[in-house]
Amino acid sequence: MENLEKYEMCWLEYKPLGNKEYCKRWENIIVLENYYDVKPCLKELKFFFQNSLGLDLKYHKNFIDKPSLIVGRLEKIKEVFKPAEDWNKLINDEGFIIKTLYFKENQRIIITGKTFNSLIYGIFELIKRIRLKEDLNSLNIIENPKVKFRMINHWDNLDGTIERGYAGNSIFFKNNKIIYSERLRDYARLLASIGINGIVLNNVNVKKKEVELIEKHYLKKLLKIAKLFGDYGIKIYLSINFASPIYLGGLITADPLNQDVALWWKRKVEEIYDIIPNFGGFLVKADSEFNPGPHIYGRTHADGANMLAEALAPFNGYVIWRAFVYNCMQDWRDTKTDRAKAAYDNFKPLDGFFDDNVILQIKYGPMDFQVREPVSPLFGALEKTNQILELQITQEYTGQQIHLCYLGTLWKEILEFDTYARGEGSKVKKILKGEVFGNKNNGFAGVSNVGNSVNWTGHDLAQANLWTFGKISWNLDESLERIINEWIKLTFGDDKKVIENISYMLINSHRIYEKYTTPLGLGWMVNPGNHFGPNPEGYEYSHWGTYHRADFKAIGVDRTSRGTGFTLQYHHPWREIFDDIEKCPEDLLLFFHRVPYDFKLKSGKILLQFIYDSHFEGVEEAEKLKEKWLELKGKIDKEKFERVLEKLNQQIKHAKEWRDVINTYFYRKTGIPDEKGRKIYP
Ligand code: GCU
């Protein structure tokens, strides 16, 4: 495997750690497993010891009379250490335990769990703790992932481009070929270190050439990738085109209830598992944005998904079916037509009709990854359906990795949202953990922000989004403060000022971005197509008028029970709260209501003045982000420092453009000037 590209290693950069004595006594490792079964773990540890500690990790098959690390699955540990029999109940299949204790006359650190995945996670955790300079004499760590599926979705195309990719080209594909490089191993390491266990390699929009990815010639190449990621506990999945039986099989239909179609998929799945035994399953975007699906044949999404699920079930494979379904060609001048209602309308009636190995993948909001949307009412509505929460790590609508927009704050709010499905406390995070409805096959999918750029994510600070995605999908209750702190220390070191300023930048950035773009739940207003830059009337499917229907008196869509009826998709008390313009959270005011510009907000300001102020403040705060960064000069690696500074300069320029375009738009619509007399139009 050649590795010609130059790239950095994000939070896994193993720089020398000052105090090597701290670890000297742990340079022996006893491995209770077959060496090859744990080779990736041992390589990682060895590499870390060498690079960060200048120590040569010594591998032993048998016990030695010295302090040592001990690695092995629980079943092996129990053979040599009786008390470990009680540990079984402490962990689930992927959970791990790291304990420092005395036995066989010496201090030992045991790293164990039920599966090889557990050992990988345990090793990365131990390395992290050492790098964070934690006391190794008293480790007592028990960690369990709270959901089963922790997936990354790549929207990579075979030609090497990435749909909504802002960090270079694909690391998997180029010129219709599959790339196999050492970089993929490093990517697998990065993902394993944050607990990811599944990866969809190709774009959900499966066009001509990509349809062929499930053909033999591609599958054979994909096997190498599946093995490589498999070494790190990560299964590969593919997005498929629902009409594949027509494109590849020469059938005249893809009707899921047609026996020939079902048989074709059955044979196809057998062929896939014959070549790639640890294949994860399919991701399907059907009946949405011109992708074929069961509706064409008058069938339901359940018919379509279950047909595939039956083919995958014998191999423990899964169908991940996306809920991002809406009719983009619908005439929405009819006041009851509302894109926000589509996912619920399509899938609520199907609750209980999906097979066990089908998982519905639901975007966090009812629209499309806007800077702020309410949480999708499907969370809380589906009781008998497995669910994956889909988040966008890539910053399609949130500044395209030019703007700093840390998404952890938004994601936390989503997880903490109380759906009230079973009364108070039915939070999204609890639904995902299976604590509300008892569904077991739940999880997270994050649309990747990774490409082949030197720092993987374009903006160096956008690495924090990938890190955070992994961390919250592993532990939905983890505090953001800890997540952010650890990331900064592992990436930039532990200087106090560095931690303080970067924390500030991350925590505040989403709100700042929202302020100078589209506050109050307005969303969109971006250029159609590339979704970058301000364009107040620029909604994609705007052949039916603007998205927000602004006129000279009011703006927003009435989604209440008196309007499109979207609020009725929520449980009590949300439906009443969202329905009431006085009670609706102001963050979401223009999402739910049509509001006159002179409407008084809680602060006493009128709506229009709030919009003006928000844009001015947003720009000032974006400038402050830069100031915070400049204070770190000399404390951050020079190249990284300059790269981020360059992005912050661009961000400020764009923020001003947003401010001016949006404020001018409203000034021209209303004729109402800014009460503070600031210059509105450029
Ligand atoms: C958005 C995005 C598309 C993507 C789609 C999806 O609309 O702009 O590029 O294909 O979401 O999630 O399927």
Verbal overview:
This protein is an alpha/beta fold. Among the domains are: 17-143, Chitobiase, domain 2 (2-Layer Sandwich), CATH 3.30.379.10; 149-277 and 363-478, TIM Barrel (Alpha-Beta Barrel). It has helices at residues 21-24, 39-53, 74-80, 116-131, 182-193, 208-211, 216-230, 244-247, 259-275, 301-312, 342-347, 408-416, 428-432, 463-474, 480-492, 496-516, 574-579, 589-592, 607-630, 638-670; strands at residues 28-31, 58-60, 68-71, 96-103, 106-113, 140-143, 149-153, 173-174, 177-178, 198-200, 235-240, 281-284, 318-322, 358-363, 386-392, 443-447, 554-555, 595-596. An eight-stranded parallel β-barrel has the order 7-10-11-12-13-14-15-16. α10 (301-312) links the parallel β12 (281-284) and β13 (318-322). The longest helix has 33 residues, at 638-670. The radius of gyration is 26 Å and the shape is globular. It starts with 20 loop residues before the first helix and ends in a 12-residue tail after the last helix. It binds alpha-D-glucopyranuronic acid. The site of alpha-D-glucopyranuronic acid has 8 residues, from loops. Alpha-D-glucopyranuronic acid binds at residues 163-164, 204-205, 285, 324, 368, 396.
